[in-house]
Specification:
Rossmann fold, 2 domains, 6-stranded mixed sheet, 4-stranded antiparallel sheet, 9 helices, 14 strands, 34% helix
C-alpha cells in the first residue's frame, strides 16, 4: 500500500459515500501542498536557486519578492517543470514531481508522471501568451478539451463560468487584439483555472500593465484568493498588494530566502539588513 503522504486517501462515511481526505505525513499532520527539498538550479556557472528548502501549506497565499535575478521567477518555472532542476526534489500534493517511486526507490520522473502531477498546477505569465487567432472562449476551452479530454460542451460551460468569474462574460467572442491588456490577462487567468489546478502561480502578471489595468487584474486575484481553496504563489513588485493579499511574504536574494513572515510583521519590522535595504529602495522609487 502506498504511504499516506503519497496520495489522498478515501474513507467511507456512514452513508457509504467516498470522502477524500488530505495527504498526511507520518506524524498525522497535513502535508504541505508544495515542498522544495535542497533544490538547486544552475545555468552554467551561475547558481540561481541555491539548495532551497521551501514549503507552502494547503490554501496558503505566498507573495515572493526580491531584486531582479534573485531566483523568484526561476522558482515558479522549475515548479511548473519549464526548467529542469540541477539537483534536489520537488513534491506537489504529497507526490514527488521531479521524481517517482519505482520498486521502492526514487528515480527521475517519466514524462507521463510529470504531466500527471503538473496537471495540479496552473501558471499565469507576465506576457499573456494567448492564441491570437482564437477568441477568449476558444483560448479557455483548448487545454481542457485536448489535455483533460473534456467534451466541447462541458469545456464551454466551464469556460463561460470562468470568464464570468473574471468579469468577462460579455467578451467570450472577442479576439485578443480586441481586448485591453488587463482583459487579456484575465482571460489568461480563466484559461489557467479551466484546468482545475490546486496550485496557482502568478509571475509578475501586472508588470506589463498600466496602473488602472493593474488594479483590474489584482482585484480578480484577490477575489480568487477569498472565494476559492487555491494554494497561490505570486512573484510581484506590488508591495501594497503583497501586504494585503498574502498570508506570508518571502524575500529572495541570491537564490535563497533571506527573510519571510506574515505581511504586517515583514513590512513593519524587517529583521535582515538586506530586506531593509530592498524595501527602502522600493519606497524611494515610488
Amino acid at each position: 500500500m502506498k504511504r499516506d503522504d503519497e496520495r489522498a486517501l478515501a474513507r467511507r462515511d456512514e452513508s457509504g459515500a467516498t470522502e477524500k481526505t488530505e495527504p498526511r505525513g507520518a506524524d498525522g499532520a497535513s502535508s504541505p501542498m508544495v515542498r522544495f527539498s535542497r533544490v538547486t538550479k544552475r545555468y552554467g556557472s551561475l547558481t540561481v536557486l541555491d539548495e532551497l528548502d521551501f514549503e507552502v501549506a494547503r490554501n496558503e497565499k505566498v507573495a515572493i519578492i526580491g531584486p531582479s535575478g534573485s531566483g523568484k521567477s526561476t522558482l515558479l518555472r522549475v515548479l511548473m517543470t519549464l526548467d529542469p532542476l540541477t539537483s534536489g526534489m520537488i513534491e506537489v500534493d504529497g507526490e514527488p514531481l521531479t521524481h517517482m517511486r519505482r520498486n521502492g526507490a526514487l528515480v527521475p520522473a517519466s514524462l507521463k508522471h510529470l504531466r500527471a502531477v503538473r496537471s495540479k498546477i496552473g501558471m499565469v505569465f507576465q506576457s499573456f501568451n494567448l492564441f491570437p487567432h482564437m477568441t477568449a472562449l476558444d483560448n479557455t476551452i483548448e487545454a481542457p478539451m485536448h489535455v483533460l479530454g473534456m467534451s466541447r460542451k462541458e469545456a464551454t460551460e466551464r469556460a463561460k463560468d470562468l470568464l464570468s468569474l473574471v468579469g468577462l462574460a460579455d467578451k467570450c467572442g472577442h479576439y485578443p487584439s480586441q481586448l485591453s491588456g488587463g482583459q487579456q490577462q484575465r482571460v489568461a487567468i480563466a484559461r489557467a483555472l479551466a484546468m482545475r489546478p490546486k496550485v496557482m502561480l502568478f509571475d509578475e502578471v501586472t508588470s506589463a500593465l498600466d496602473p488602472e489595468l493593474c488594479g483590474e487584474v489584482l482585484n480578480v486575484i484577490r477575489r480568487l484568493g477569498e472565494e476559492h481553496n487555491l494554494t497561490m504563489l505570486m512573484v510581484t513588485h506590488q508591495m501594497g498588494f503583497a501586504r494585503d493579499f498574502a498570508d506570508r511574504v518571502c524575500f529572495f536574494s541570491q537564490g535563497k530566502i533571506i527573510e519571510q513572515g506574515p505581511p504586517q510583521e515583514f513590512f513593519s519590522a524587517p529583521k535582515h539588513e538586506r530586506t531593509r535595504q530592498f524595501l527602502r529602495a522600493v519606497r524611494e522609487a515610488l
